[in-house]
Amino acid sequence: MKTDATAAEQAVLDRLRACLGEVLPVEPLAADYDLIASGVLDSSRFLAVFVELEDHFGIRITGDDISQDNFRTLARIARFVRAKGGDA
């Protein structure tokens, strides 16, 4: 049985896969796939990811939010989105 937090995180992951699948050239996107080490998420795609996250989740990303730790994997992006108050 999933907890509410787990279900909410899964809902965010599902939405991330849908919205970032158009920006990132990897299908399917596993939650723990290292987007930075693999070179999938390079500097040019960071901006596209930020725009997608702000548009799809209604969050605002500031310079203080930009760190590789927040964007290394889909799971970390999901935690970041939830911490910023993004809705699933």
What this model shows, in words?
52% of the residues lie in helices and 0% in strands. It is an all-alpha fold and 88 residues long. The relative contact order is 0.21. The model has no long low-confidence stretch (mean pLDDT 88).
Mean pLDDT, as a whole number? Answer: 88
The largest sheet, given as strand count, sense and whether it forms a barrel, is: none
N→C terminal distance = 19 Å
Structural class: mainly alpha
Overall geometry comes to globular
Number of helices: 4
- The helical percent reads 40-55%
Rounded radius of gyration (Å): 12 Å
H/E topology pattern? HHHH
Q: What is the chains' assembly state?
A: single chain
How many individual β-strands? 0
Strand content: under 5%
**Uncertain residue ranges:** none
Characterize this entry briefly.
By secondary structure, this protein is mostly helical. 52% of the residues lie in helices and 0% in strands.
Note the topology.
Elements: H1 4-20, H2 43-57, H3 68-71, H4 74-83
Helix pairs in contact: 1-2, 1-4
Structure characteristics:
88 residues, mainly alpha, 52% helix
